[in-house]
Amino acid sequence: MAGGLIHQVLRRKLQSQSAVQALSCFTSRKANDDAGSAGMRTVALLGAGATGLLGFATVASADEAEHGLGVPNYPWPHQGILSSYDHASIRRGHQVYQQVCASCHSMSLISYRDLVGVAYTEEETKAMAAEIEVVDGPNDEGEMFTRPGKLSDRFPQPYSNEQAARFANGGAYPPDLSLITKARHNGQNYVFALLTGYRDPPAGVTIREGLHYNPYFPGGAIAMPKMLIDGAVEYEDGTPATEAQMGKDVVTFLSWAAEPEMEERKLMGFKWIFVLSLALLQAGYYRRLRWSVLKSRKLVLDVVN
Amino acid sequence: MLQDIIPHRHIRYRTDQAATLLIGRADEEPVDQKKTLENICQSGCAKPKHGYEECVKRISGDDTGTKHCTGQYFDYLTCVDKCVAPKLFAKLK
Q: Superkingdom, according to UniProt (chain A) (predicted)?
């Protein structure tokens, strides 16, 4: 009977938007009439909850742009259970980051020394670090001074603080990219789709001046313009720098930056899952061996009538 | 055809190889692989594309500014993405 009442309420909700009013008069009528009205109140509350949920659901799913277009899954070369990063791709991706992205996006958790042995040799990295100026100090005279960068220095920040970053980018803060592929749902695919997904908006959608349309970005209007243009970067190894190639390389670089331990983790994981499976088999055998004494007991009930 | 421009040889060139073999054309603009694949995949997504175009026609007379075709656009893009994604990385280095 209580279920039937809820069904009645739900049906009325689906038919018209005035279900809230219907429910309130239902609630007041039922709650006031019955002497044992506690049960009726719970029914009414459950009905109100269901109505609220349904009302919320119809409003939230009405706009697909709100969640952004669903991202496809790309077959990343480092995706398999025993697959490592494509280190040539990390090297190219770092070049793309440096030349295209670093003017607005910081990567303040990565140091130059992290690149050694991953994308560049130590000499190359030292030379790269020496190109930047770093504020250090205070010296013996108590003054701050600038010096060329060292391996131990972090990647340089394009802006001194968040407010400066926002001011230079129309109020929008270009997020730090050190962990971006872990900081977004389905990060690697999302970042690749976003970078290569700039399109014209659909009919009926206008984006205000200063923003750009990107279907993968929640809401559709992103402050960042399309940055990956064919030929924007000249790769050292001669790879043609198309938008898709640069996108793949920069996302591989960002994946490495967020998860530098990935290769070691996969090796360790594979090894220890194997070892622990053997240990499980051994433990299972040993348990059954010891319990066999008790499990093969025979209990005799000797009842004398 | 490229075979007309380059001297006649008894070798068949693939179009992309031929582009790099042409003397003095080393700076041939690379064509974005994703765009190429999207153009190819459009033919397999005729139904959502048609749905989007129908929507555009439906709202063309709209003055209220509230009507838009995001849903149909997303359906079309999802179809194209599903076709492009498995093939794209094979074309990249």
A: Eukaryota
CA pseudo-torsion sign A184, A190, A194, A196: positive
Does the ipTM surpass 0.85?
no
pLDDT in tens, B45-91: 999 999 999 999 999 987 888 899 999 999 999 999 999 999 999 99
CA quadruple A221, A223, A228, A229: dihedral, nearest 10 = 80
Write out the two tokens for A23: 């429910």
Interatomic CA distance for residues A190 and A222, integer angstroms: 14
DSSP codes of every residue in B44-68: GGHHHHHHHHHHHHHHTT--SS---
Nearest Cα of chain B lies from the Cα of A65 at a distance, in angstroms, of 7
Angle at B38 between CA B37 and CA B43, to 5 degrees: 100
For residue A138, is the peptide bond before it cis, meaning its omega torsion is within 30 degrees of 0?
A: yes
Please list every residue in chain B whose beta carbon sits closer than 8 Å to the beta carbon of residue A248: 89, 92
Which of chain B's residues have a Cβ under 8 Å away from the Cβ of A70? 74, 78
